[in-house]
Amino acid sequence: MAGFLLAYGTSLEMDVMARIPKLTTTLAYDRYMAGQRLVSSVDRPWRHLVLRSYLEPVEQELLEAPGLQDLTLMTLASGAEHLERNLNGRWERADLRVGDVWFVPSSPISWRWRSIGDEPLSTVHLHIERGLIDSVAEQMELGGSPELSLGDAMRFRDPLIATMLGALHRAAADPSDSRLYVDALAHALAAHLLQHYSRGRPAPGRLPIQPERLVPRRIRRVTDYIRANLASDLSIGELAGQAGLSSFHFARVFRREAGETPHQFVTRLRLEEAARQLRATDQTVLQIAIAVGFESASHFSVQFKRGYGVTPRAYRLRG
């Protein structure tokens, strides 16, 4: 009887594995997760990224998941766990806490875990399109499609990556955070991964990148473009093109020259124009919100109150 149960269990596990594809898409990956989804960016107008977070079971005996083409990073939003993974027939284990980051390899993998803390166990999963990594690598003058040396690490600590994952998690849950802000974070995260975890080398025959400065004429070109297109869904790549710089360099150089990030600059200009229209026109709050580039009246009201300390309606009444 025991032999039958063992054989039955082995047969069942093999059947489960047979039904799991070797590779799946980031959007489909959600169906293989064990936890209750808390936050998702799938319906947000984000480029190059998908972020989800889950409230996980206290204990999971076995979770089989297919591989992914997109680069996937995970971290804990709360709690602590003893995590084990089986990659290519070998089990590895580590105790993970908030601040630890781990990499999900591109091949099928088995997971099991148990909570080792009193707090609820929740995870953040960030999927980064390989195309973004390759695009930033090209801007950094790295040869070919560089390989990131993360697959051998069951766990690694990188405070900057953990901070960026936390910022993206908050942005996914907050409709008032703009796509331009997320765009800048995505490029910065890709550049950090390539700078510190890439096996790539500078392309042969190319000179090292020299620091570039945005001269006042280029600053004016970008700021004039922003003022003329406040209602548009501006992106880092679009603004970088106006400056004649790569996306990788643009955000850093713009902040150095303008004293603000592109996201902060665009948001400030949108709020200033909105305040002017609230004083000078009879348009509704929704009309003004759309005219200056906000997604909705509620999104606009949250940002306006952050900037001016009152709601748009209260600002208009105050005169």
UniProtKB/TrEMBL annotation:
PROSITE patterns: HTH_ARAC_FAMILY_1, HTH_ARAC_FAMILY_2
InterPro entries the record matches: AraC_XylS_family_regulators, Homeodomain-like_sf, HTH_AraC, HTH_AraC-typ_CS, Tscrpt_reg_AraC-type_HTH
Domain HTH araC/xylS-type stretches: 220-318
Stored SMART domains: HTH_ARAC
Keywords: DNA-binding, Transcription, Transcription regulation
MF terms (GO), sorted A to Z: DNA-binding transcription factor activity; sequence-specific DNA binding
SUPFAM superfamilies hit by this protein: Homeodomain-like
Keyword NADP: no
Stored PANTHER family: HTH-TYPE TRANSCRIPTIONAL ACTIVATOR RHAS-RELATED (PTHR46796)
Protein name: HTH-type transcriptional activator RhaS
Lineage, opening ranks: Bacteria, Pseudomonadati, Pseudomonadota, Betaproteobacteria, Burkholderiales
Gene: rhaS_7
